[in-house]
Amino acid sequence: MDHFVDFMRSAVGRTVRIVLGLVLIGLGLFGDAGFFVGIIGLVPLVAGWVNFCLFAPLFGRTIWGKPRVAH
């Protein structure tokens, strides 16, 4: 499970959270999933946008994602 948290805190994990949030919002607004699913989609969308991971504290890590590395 530690690898999952490390992945979700990475830049790729951040992108996955944003895409997942957008998919859930789309399903909630335009699909048969219902409005509630769209509201739940806000959680991963905001988490990716702001760069925090809700699972990280459960495994002793900081809630904030890994900082971007300047090249």
Provide keyphrases for this structure.
elongated; 71 residues; 4 helices; mainly alpha
Number of β-strand runs: 0
Structural class determined from secondary elements: mainly alpha
Global morphology: elongated
Order of helices and strands: HHHH
How much helicity do the residues have? 55-70%
How far apart the termini lie comes to 30 Å
> Number of folding domains?
1
Strand content: under 5%
Mean pLDDT: 84
Radius of gyration: 13 Å
Q: Given the structure, what is the number of helices? A: 4
Low-confidence stretches: none
Describe the biggest sheet?
Answer: none
Can you describe what's shown?
The chain has 71 residues and is mainly α. It has one domain. It has helices at residues 2-9, 11-30, 35-40, 42-50. The longest helix is centred in the first third of the chain and has 20 residues, at 11-30. The chain is elongated. 18% of the residues are buried. The mean pLDDT is 84.
Please outline the helices and strands.
Layout: H1 2-9, H2 11-30, H3 35-40, H4 42-50
Helix pairs in contact: 1-2, 2-4
